[in-house]
Amino acid sequence: MTLHPGIRYKNGCRGVLGKKMKKAVYLHFREHYGIVEKENRKRRMKRGKMKFRKAKQDDKEEILALYQSLIGTPYCAWGNGYPGEQEFDYDMKRNALFCMENEDGEIIGTITVDEDPQVEALTCWSKTLQPSAELSRLGVRTDMQNQGIARQLLQHGMEELKKQGKRSVHFLVCKTNKKALRSYEKLHFDVVGESDLFDEDWWCYEKEL
Fold first, then answer.
1. Average pLDDT of the chain to the nearest whole number
2. Using CB atoms within 10 A of its CB, is residue 70 exposed (0-12), middle (13-18) or buried (19+)?
3. Cis peptide bond N-terminal to 83, omega within 30
């Protein structure tokens, strides 16, 4: 039996633990490896205290800071000042920018209903699922990643498109973005083509609403 520092074992060091001591060892390991905090965070998420809403002009500084914090992180294709103030103003002008905030009112994620002529001109999008729209500029604060928030943003974004009368949704996913690829597979998107727009290699994803 492997002994762990800081644990007092029953009956000396013969490895025979009583029920109370076994529970103490179990709780110690949970605390030691951060399992409790991870589970508590998941429980807080399940309480439904996160809020999806349209972005406001007052959110500009916080959203731009979120964009900037993601540039250069693993799997992120953003860079060279994109997205920035120009994209924020463009999205706000069209009432197309949405965000997710936590129970403390902090913005932890964003998503946009985009209108990019170059993306819309791609020939891979289904002609029978029109009208359609692109979801873009999806970002999640780094400390809140790997918790399903990106999928929630997508689901809320798709609900918004349904309200607008769209029949399908589409977007580009960088081929090296393994996290995003896993998320979209779970939402049953179809890969309908590929593109090299903006000097990146993309998969073209589409889904009927």
1. 84
2. middle
3. yes
